[in-house]
Amino acid sequence: MKLKYSLLYALVLTNLCSSCNEEWSGEQYEHYVSFKAPINSDGVSRINVRYRSDKATTYQVPLIVSGTTFNDRNYSVRIGLDPDTLTILNKERYSTRTDLYYQTLPATFYTFPETVDIKAGENTALLPVDFKLNNIDLSEKWVLPLTIEEAPDGSYIPNYRKHYRKALLRVMPFNDYSGNYSAVNYKCYIKGAESEAPFVKNYVMTYVVDDHSLFFYAGIIDETRVDRKGYRILAKFIDSGDGKIGNVELSPVDSDNKMKFQIGKDDYGKEVIPTYSVTETMDPIRPYLKRKTIIIRNINYSYVDYTTIPGVETEYHVIGSLALERQINTQIPDEDQAIDWEAGT
């Protein structure tokens, strides 16, 4: 009797397994086409693009075909712009603070093909976006909002899950000197009260201007200020010849210099010229990891805050140094991927 029940259970189990296998051999999920562009806490996908003044830089945006089986069809996926999604994001995050809105990157700064081909037997493809970012103003927050468009012939289905069909690319150009500098030794005093406690910042963010220049905001000003454009300081790195040391020329970005930017002077009345140094060392524990450190020393300048209190100018004196470390994985050929942006900048 027990043998009879055992055989019956075995037969039922065999039928169940057979049904499961037949279902698995089919398709449990539709083949949906998605971007691989995960968003960060700001609601966008930051991409780091090497700035080049003489040619374009190509950034590859991955596309994925989802499903439990391999893709068995050829797809020609149409790619377009989606500024409406960016408008919704701005209103949800910043409400009436329109000065903080992300801006759609002008078409003069990029090109990309209208379609991307995904071949049968492959589940991924790359959308090449060519960026040429000469004269871009990074006091604005530029985003390239991409979307997977509907197939006119219904040959593919975009993934309608949130953040899968869209790619909000927050474009951040970088050069050899740009990044988020540690400001531990960067002090901002009210002019004439240098013996008092200074205003301090954890970091000073710098933004690309060209191959050898960047800008940052004076003192404790940052990108959240409505009036930030009037407080930009240009830093031009003058190489001494070996690429490791040199001077840094500081000047106001705006020619009218409403913030009354001035280089500080030493005890002999001479202007204090900032200098920089670049050192590279290999990590002793992870030999593939290179640490590149940039230090800007002898920072000494003054400026006035002419907008916080209408009709009143408050003068500040800034002194100290800034330091940036980039951790670079030498095993990764693509420069933008090799740099650990979270750790180094």
From TrEMBL:
Q: Could you tell me what this protein is called?
A: DUF4973 domain-containing protein
Domain DUF4973: where? Answer: 24-152
Q: The BT-3044-like C-terminal domain covers which part of the protein?
A: 165-322
Among Pfam families, the record links this protein to:
BT_3044-like_C, DUF4973
Q: Where does the UniProt annotation place the signal sequence?
A: none
The organism is Bacteroides thetaiotaomicron
